[in-house]
Amino acid sequence: MFTDQTHNIHNKSIFAGSPNLIKDLPEWFPKANFHRSSSDLIAKSSSNNEQIILVDYFSNFDLPSVLTSNGLLLNGSLLSTLAGPVSIGKYAQAAETEVLSIGEVTSINGTVKATRIDGNIFELSIGDPVFQGDTIETTGNGSVGLVFIDKTTFSLSEGGKMVLDELVYDPSTGNGSMTVDMLEGAFSFISGEVAKTGPDAMQLKTPVVTMGIRGTTVAGKAAVEGNDNSFTLLQDADGGVGQISVSNDGGTQVLSQVGATTVVSSFTAPPPQPVILSAAQIQANYGTALNVLPPTPAVAPQPQSAPPPQEEAQEEATQEEAEEDSDEDSEDEGNEDVSEESDGESDNEETQSEEGLLDEETPEGEGEALEGEGPPEEEGPPEGEGPPEG
Q: For the chain, what is the domain count?
């Protein structure tokens, strides 16, 4: 381990160029801020000044899983998603392949953000599309309801974070698969068409278990290793009851009764026998997530094309405003020119009018010497008088 004196960060480098499993990482690792640097994976603690560099992690064809000192397992695909692309906005993709949405936002409270697989961040609003690879995160007391293209509905409440790892569904054949990584927070969902195609076609993963969904309604809470992760089976809107399996390295527990709940706090501890929660207990545990859970839609949302990053959209809006301002300025200048011309014409008309008035007021011939008149002659002494004699 060495210290970055400039930022007082304690760095630990681990060679990760070949192992299938990287062990004994610190307990804070799952909640770290992840990013890439060339082929390295960098994890910086959000609570202290520690930073771990997994050297050459991304040089592996099959990305290694990571096991923390308290038994939490994180797979390579999830870490790759959390780390984002090599460069924001530079996600390598075939130019002819159009990225289509896998669902949309139907309800929202507070602030909820989506980090796309290309690293761009969007603040979500009702009607916005969501895409495979999106990391959805609520801020403060924020909550969100989502509907997916196979009619699965999902809610995420305060302090929640999840990754839409995969959703592939072909309505013409009915085939598909869906995986959601639920990292933290309370959630609820009603499974859609994908869950009907096979026992493991729809999976939800938390830090301590993997849940297999077989057509049902579920509520739960996800948390990091050492904290309670709870899972409760609910009654469907039509009165039916589905089934879920809760599995980890310790074993598997199947829930098939309304209110059946199991609580797990470690990836290696077997899920315990379920207990039955009352309706009041269920509401107390998962209230917000249940309140914002959308009902199953009559018609699934249609896939949409990806919108431009919000920065680009803002730049386009700014450019449009600038063009509008420029057009307005041009119009104002034109109006000023017309006004000046009008003022000039008005001045000329006034001048001509004044001259006309002067001509009318001056009598004909006035100002000119009358014919035969000249300047008055000087008067001399009276005739016959001369100067007095000396």
A: 2
